Amino acid sequence: MNQSTRSIRVWTLNALAAVIVLALGTTALPTQAQTAAPTEEPKTTEQAFKNIKVLKGLPADQLIPSMQFISASLGVECEFCHVERAFEKDDKKPKEAARKMIQMMLAINKDNFEGHREVTCNTCHRGSAHPVSIPAIASEDQVTGATAMEHGEHSESPDESTDASQPVDPILEKYLAAMGGASAVQKVSSRVEKGNASMGGRQIPIEIYAQGPDKRVAILHLPGGDNITAFDGHSGWLGNPGRPPRPMGPSEIDAARLDADLYFPIHLKEIFSELRVAPSEKVGGQDLTVVRGLRQGKPPVKLYFDKSGLLVRMVRYGDSPLGLNPTQVDYADYRDSGGVNIPYQWTIARPNGGFTIRVEKVEQNVPIDAARFAPPPPPPGQKPPAP
Predict the structure, then answer these.
(1) I need a surface site. Which of 84, 122, 289, 305 has the fewest CB within 10 A?
(2) Which H or E element spans position 63?
(3) Nearest Cα to Cα of residue 247 among 379, 374, 97
(4) Higher pLDDT, 182 or 139
(5) Residues of the domain holding 62
(6) DSSP states of 322-343 as a string?
(7) Are both 136 and 175 inside the same structural domain?
(8) What integer pLDDT is reported at residue 86 of this predicted model?
């Protein structure tokens, strides 16, 4: 893997997961889209990017999530279809093949499923650049994986089964109590965490600044410069070494908003219009209680609680015109910090990679400069990113 590809992968890991990382969520952006001055009217894909032939008429901020979905479905990087640093060129055959496949997929859904998104790239590819036409003889691990898919894990239609007989309130109350109680949680006005992110066998310093109720910025100190993911409670922005900052798209904002809520255990019923108890699942030998959080017009979020009541996993989905991009966050090593139990380790995983953050130092109720959450000023003559 060359240095450019490695940088792309690191950036993608940084943002999607939420406040920290969306290098994994935002694969390399074509240069012309990053440097173009924003306008008042939202641009379409063909207005913001060069040589768009199939995914026309979509909001420009939906193109990158669509590319992420293709990348995850085929298990490939950007350069599989695109010419590095010249994404608009048609020099590679897989790019034209991808256009034909997208048209075929859209036609199948239109002609057979009333336009509903039932067939996606992942339906056939399942993480391989070339669909497998001959059924494989399943190993024990593959059987387990197939069972998980039957239960909706990371499928196009996340499992909607619920247990209506089990009330959700006791689960939420136990979670809040395990965190230290509402009073302790509300006493925290800010939190600064410093540690390291493990990526590809390397330890990369990271700092996370959170200001109540819902501001957060994560700074990953890469060798070539800082990777920054920031959310100010309303909008967010992403900064990558050697590139101008860009505003977050809708799916990125949705993920960042969940991670930035300093009072998440208290706000669950405000965040989700409905919370339902789902069938329990076994993870790492533990039977976990599962709650599905529903929001109008957005994919569900699955919350996993252990027997102590602590949140140990969150699975969420970023929507795109081609399919859902799953992100799984595992929380571990909970410790008391000023009367509140917080995870000192979390692992963010997506189909094309993951990383683990380990916190070494925590400070709470310390002043944080508001400028940390604002994007840097643009170069002379360039407009700032649109909020």
Answers:
(1) 84
(2) helix 63-74
(3) 374
(4) 182
(5) 3-150
(6) S-EEEEEEEEEEEEEETTEEEE
(7) no
(8) 87
Q: Give the confidence band of 128 by pLDDT, cuts at 50, 70, 90.
A: confident
Q: Is the separation of the CB atoms in 64 and 249 below 8 Å?
A: yes
Residue 130 DSSP class: S
* Judgement on whether residues 275 and 306 belong to the same structural domain of the protein: yes
The whole-model pTM stands at: 0.79
The contacts of residue 150 (CB under 8 Å, 6+ apart) are none
Kindly provide the b/e burial profile for residues 254-265, where b requires at least 16 CB atoms within 10 angstroms of the residue's own CB: bbbbbbbbbbbb
Instruction: Give CA–CA dist 250/228, Å, rounded.
Output: 18
Task: Tell me how far apart the alpha carbons of residues 97 and 130 are, in angstroms, rounded to a whole number.
Answer: 11
Structural domains of the chain, count: 2
By CB atoms closer than 10 A (0-12, 13-18, 19+), residue 271 is middle
Calpha distance 336→40 (Å, rounded): 46
Q: Are residues 145 and 174 in the same domain?
A: no
301 and 346 inside one domain: yes
Confidence of residue 378 (pLDDT cuts 50, 70, 90): low
Interval 66-113: pLDDT, tens: 888 888 888 888 888 998 888 888 888 988 988 999 899 999 988 999
Q: Is 117 helix (H, G, I), strand (E, B) or coil?
A: coil
Q: Are strands 190-199 and 202-211 parallel, antiparallel or unpaired?
A: antiparallel
SS3 280: strand
How far is residue 363 from each of residues 24, 189, 190, 207, 359, measured CA to CA in Å? 28, 11, 8, 11, 11
Q: Band of the pLDDT at 1, cuts 50, 70, 90?
A: very low
Any domain includes 228: no
CATH number of the structural domain spanning residue 78: 1.10.468.10
Reference 131, options 73, 62, 198; nearest CA is 73
Q: Which residues contact 68 (CB under 8 A, 6 or more apart)?
A: 12, 16, 25, 26, 27, 318, 320, 325
Q: Which two tokens stand for residue 243?
A: 């590139």
Q: Is residue 159 part of a domain?
A: no
Buried b (16+ CB within 10 A) or exposed e, 226-252: ebbbbbbbebbbbbbeebbbbbbbebb
18-22, 177-181, 264-268: segment of lowest average pLDDT = 18-22
Contact 230, 372 (CB under 8 A): yes
* pLDDT, position 143: 47
